[in-house]
Design goal:
With 230 residues, the chain is α+β, with helices and mostly antiparallel strands. The protein folds into two domains: 56 residues, no CATH class; 164 residues, Aminopeptidase (3-Layer(aba) Sandwich), CATH 3.40.630.30. 26% of the residues lie in helices and 33% in strands.
């Protein structure tokens, strides 16, 4: 399968100040799971039908990270978080447009980025998927307080996006959702959960390397971090 590869400037870097965000882009709704997984293993991420890989000048801080599902064991704090949220009900279904999930997405993006997403953006980004995408709804007493989307591939799963009600921030739902996605990975006998980019000096991404063991994509090869490989 052949692709057209483009390079685009996305403006200011969302992770590090004073840097321009430049990406390689591929647009396709025709990818099979093998090709999609191959792109993930080359450092690409998916946003709707667009696959992108950051290629910023004089910067290589964005590193793809994946977790080994079978070897993962929750830490003491992660086990506490599982107990704290044991009253939540999780419902899974193929991704589709969901009005309640959309309203939660709007509330989340308004709070987090001061920019409420539109319905068209939501549909293009998350609902109108041509891939095997599942939606995971996190409910408390019948109220939707979190929703995540994951792509199911051949040997791995990719965490696409997660949004939550800011009123429940003390539940650490972003971390909790990854724990439940890892459980799903194990149930489906998939080897890895892809979490996308990790930037060492970005505080907002510091949670990603707390799931161990994990691997980083360095110079085209997956490898454990230096502190685990010694």
């Amino acid at each position: 399968m052949e692709f057209s590869l483009f390079e685009a400037s996305n403006g200011e870097c969302p992770y590090l100040e004073g840097k321009e965000w430049i990406s390689y882009l591929i647009q396709s709704r025709l990818l099979d799971p093998y090709a999609y997984e191959n792109l993930l293993n080359q450092g690409f991420r998916r946003s709707g039908s667009i696959f992108y890989k950051n290629n910023c000048q004089d910067c290589s801080e964005c590193i793809s990270l994946r977790i080994q599902s079978e070897r993962f064991t929750p830490s003491k704090s992660q086990r506490r978080l599982l107990r704290k949220n044991q009253d939540l009900v999780i419902l899974r279904s193929p991704s589709c447009f969901d009005e309640e999930a959309f309203q939660l997405y709007v509330k989340f993006t308004q709070e987090r980025y001061d920019n409420a997403g539109s319905e068209e953006e939501f549909r293009n980004f998350l609902s109108n998927t041509a891939f095997n995408t599942w939606m995971m709804r996190y409910e408390l007493e019948g109220r939707l307080i979190g929703v995540g989307w994951v792509d199911i591939l051949i040997n791995s799963m990719s965490s696409v996006y997660f949004a939550f009600d800011p009123a429940y921030q003390d539940r650490s739902l972003g971390t909790y959702s990854i724990l439940r996605e890892l459980e799903l990975c194990k149930d489906l006998e998939l080897d890895y959960l892809h979490l996308g980019f990790w930037v060492q000096d970005c505080q907002a991404m510091s949670y990603k390397n707390r799931f161990r063991p994990y691997e980083l994509l360095i110079r085209g090869q997956w490898a454990p971090p230096e502190d685990e490989s010694e």
